[in-house]
Amino acid sequence: MKYKDVEALIKENHPELYSDFSRFKYSKFIASQLMVMRSSNDVSQLEMANFLGVTQSKVSKIESSKDSDLTIADMLLYCKKLGYNLTIEIDKDDWPESISKTF
Questions:
Q1: At 99, is the secondary structure helix, strand, or coil?
Q2: Would you say the C-alpha torsion 73, 76, 79, 80 has a positive or negative sign?
Q3: Domain for residue 98, yes or no?
Q4: H/E segment holding residue 68
Q5: Strands 99-102 and 87-90
């Protein structure tokens, strides 16, 4: 059988590994988006570092880190510098509505 991607193959043939694969696949999604947001706004790592009050190497570390290592403060400051809003949402299937806050 032909699969459209590795994820489909693992999901069908190794369901016991699928949750670990999904976590791995997205483990750097937010961090990489911070880098895309910064570079698409023509802001250098050094400019971001000056805004954040950290070194350029810290900005590099933030942008290449695992999402689990990011702080809300890091994400909020990136958004503030680049003109984006940061929305945090908490939801549960049996809740009538989610809790959401935009900064």
A1: strand
A2: negative
A3: yes
A4: none
A5: antiparallel
